């Protein structure tokens, strides 16, 4: 130690220049590459592969139509045998109303029908035969009266009887003829098509119509599912007094499921009916299912700047529920072996003349590019780049055309597009 101190003291005149020289060498080693070769910059690699352009949107699950369930009469709810979210079959009972009064009215109407039927049978089985018998009797009486008038007319001409007796016999003939005419009318009214028969038939029809109305009102007390489906809303309980015009339940019919999504209006030109899509429910993001574009609204929502589209799901997964939130990727175009560059490396990407900074022999060089499809952070390069080229991200504002740089590979344009 003492020896080192003596040597350090002996070198005192030379210590300062040596230290400065040492610092200069260290600084050159540290800053030299940056000054001579430029800064280290993360770059992107241009790749080539099959590419699919997708339009991404979100929306919800919806049945093609919904059925609102209500009542056609005012009444008190007796029973609600189904719960919200339950799958029901067509014809299954959903709501029962108190129906004692309605059953009594239907029974009373049935009795009125029976009475009308009995009256019609009475006309056909009693009144008509009696009228025909009376007609035959009236005909016999008229024949007898006419025969007596003929005989007594001969006696009158012979002077055996007077005019008064002959007049009485003529009156008897007129009376018998009137009775015959009355009997004929009785027969006509009692026969099929006659007035009494028609009145009886009309009374029977009216009674049956009243009975049908009473039974219809009785049937209204039991509300059934018009189609099979899932109850997505229920707003009625036992004891409630319900009236026509109010929805008590909402039924989502079984059948094809649709996804209703909003698409940014700037992507309208990319859409076409029949395009395939992949969708997932936000509650089950790991599970994806197929869908197909079946409807594009002809109008644009001016407030949101979007267009409503619908996609049919031919085979909806079992977990899919009405009004679930979904994410949809609609495949609008595809390119085999496309040259791809990260969109974040393209300057003026939406302008008429986009360009990139390509790494060439340690320098950044501005190169114009012509773009094609874009999706998922990637852009198809139709002209200006080749697979394997390195490009500088547009966010690297310190790098300009002609700047030196040392490329630092930070990513490749090979990530999967959504």
From TrEMBL:
Residues 340-404 form the YknX-like C-terminal permuted SH3-like domain. SUPFAM superfamilies: HlyD-like secretion proteins. Residues 97-186 form a coiled coil. The keyword Transport does not apply. The keyword Kinase does not apply. Keywords: Coiled coil. It holds the Pfam family Beta-barrel_RND_2. Residues 259-331 form the CusB-like beta-barrel domain. InterPro entries: Beta-barrel_RND_2 (IPR058792), RND_pump_MFP (IPR006143), YknX-like_C (IPR058637). Belongs to the membrane fusion protein (MFP) (TC 8.A.1) family. This is Efflux RND transporter periplasmic adaptor subunit.
């Amino acid at each position: 130690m003492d020896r080192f101190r003596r040597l350090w003291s002996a070198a005192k005149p030379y210590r300062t220049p040596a230290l400065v020289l040492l610092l200069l060498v260290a600084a050159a080693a540290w800053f030299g590459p940056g000054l001579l070769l430029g800064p280290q910059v993360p770059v992107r690699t241009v790749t080539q592969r099959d590419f699919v352009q997708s339009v991404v949107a979100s929306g919800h699950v919806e049945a093609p139509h919904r059925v609102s369930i209500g009542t056609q009469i005012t009444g008190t709810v007796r029973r609600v045998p189904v719960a919200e979210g339950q799958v029901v079959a067509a014809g299954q009972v959903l709501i029962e109303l108190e129906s004692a009064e309605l059953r009594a009215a239907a029974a009373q109407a049935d009795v009125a029908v029976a009475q009308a039927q009995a009256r019609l049978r009475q006309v056909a089985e009693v009144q008509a035969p009696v009228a025909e018998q009376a007609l035959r009797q009236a005909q016999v009486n008229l024949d007898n009266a006419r025969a007596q008038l003929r005989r007594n007319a001969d006696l009158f001409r012979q002077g055996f009887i007077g005019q008064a007796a002959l007049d009485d016999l003529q009156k008897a003939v007129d009376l018998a003829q009137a009775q015959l005419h009355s009997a004929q009318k009785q027969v006509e009214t009692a026969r099929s098509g006659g007035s009494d028969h028609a009145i009886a038939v009309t009374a029977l029809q009216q009674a049956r119509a009243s009975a049908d109305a009473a039974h219809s009102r009785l049937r209204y007390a039991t509300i059934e599912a018009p189609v099979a489906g899932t109850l997505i809303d229920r707003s009625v309980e036992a004891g409630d007094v319900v009236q026509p015009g109010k929805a008590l339940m909402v039924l989502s019919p079984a059948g094809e499921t649709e996804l209703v999504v909003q698409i940014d209006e700037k992507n309208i030109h990319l859409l076409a009916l029949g395009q395939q899509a992949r969708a997932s429910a936000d509650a089950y993001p790991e599970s994806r299912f197929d869908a197909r574009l079946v409807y594009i609204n002809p109008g644009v929502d001016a407030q949101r700047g979007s267009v409503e589209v619908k996609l049919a799901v031919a085979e909806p997964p079992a977990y899919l529920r009405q009004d679930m939130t979904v994410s949809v990727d609609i495949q609008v175009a595809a390119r085999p072996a496309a040259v791809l560059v990260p969109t974040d490396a393209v300057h003026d990407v939406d302008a008429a003349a986009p360009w990139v900074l390509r790494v060439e022999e340690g320098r950044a060089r501005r190169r114009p590019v012509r773009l094609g499809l874009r999706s998922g952070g990637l852009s198809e390069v139709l002209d200006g780049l080749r697979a394997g080229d390195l490009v500088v991200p547009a966010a690297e504002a310190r790098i300009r055309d002609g700047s030196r740089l040392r490329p630092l590979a930070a990513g490749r344009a090979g990530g999967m597009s959504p």
